[in-house]
TrEMBL record:
SUPFAM superfamilies: Acyl-CoA N-acyltransferases (Nat) (SSF55729)
Matches recorded under Pfam families: Acetyltransf_1
Span of domain N-acetyltransferase: 4-151
Organism classification: Bacteria, Bacillati, Actinomycetota, Actinomycetes, Pseudonocardiales
Protein name: GNAT family N-acetyltransferase
Gene3D superfamilies named in the record: 3.40.630.30, The crystal structure of the spermine/spermidine acetyltransferase from enterococcus faecali (1.10.287.900)
Length: 151
């Protein structure tokens, strides 16, 4: 299994993290890091929490969640919603995505969370999430299938 660290994004690492890209053809499934940071800044009601994913001292990915969102905020799924998970195309297939989920699940549990939600396009990374243990909720959000991992 691949070991990862979730690292705060700073002025020193921002350019390297924003340079991460998924494989060609995957861009329609996940927004870029730069776009994700813009979305976080423009949607504070979603309580965005984000980190760079590092392995062996270099950035290999990015993760962003809605973190412990109070109930009743219109249009915001939660309280814990995996909003973005991006592993750079050069680093895919090495277990980093699963390792990031392991880290996120541990953090959400430690914060008292009992479930983690995410969504994906019908032809997107659904098999990855199902293999990890996420199950469909029956909901659709902006055309994406909503899935739940019970913690």
């Amino acid at each position: 299994m691949s070991s990862v660290r979730l690292v705060e994004i700073t002025d020193e690492n921002r350019d390297a993290v924003c340079a991460l890209r998924v494989r060609p053809g995957q861009e329609r499934f996940v927004a870029s890091v730069a776009r994700s940071l813009e979305d976080a800044a423009s949607t504070p009601e979603a309580e965005p929490w984000f980190r760079a994913v590092y392995a062996d001292g270099e950035p290999v990915g990015f993760v962003m969640l809605s973190w412990n969102v109070p109930p009743g905020r219109p249009g915001i799924l939660g309280p814990y919603f995996l909003w973005r998970l991006l592993i750079d195309g050069r680093h895919q297939g090495r277990g980093f995505g699963r390792a990031v989920l392991d880290e996120v699940v541990a953090l959400v549990r430690a914060d008292g969370g009992t479930e983690l939600l995410t969504s994906h396009q019908p032809d997107g990374p659904g098999p990855f999430y199902r293999e990890y243990g996420f199950r469909p909720t029956g909901e659709v959000d902006h055309g994406e299938t909503v899935v739940r991992l019970t913690l």
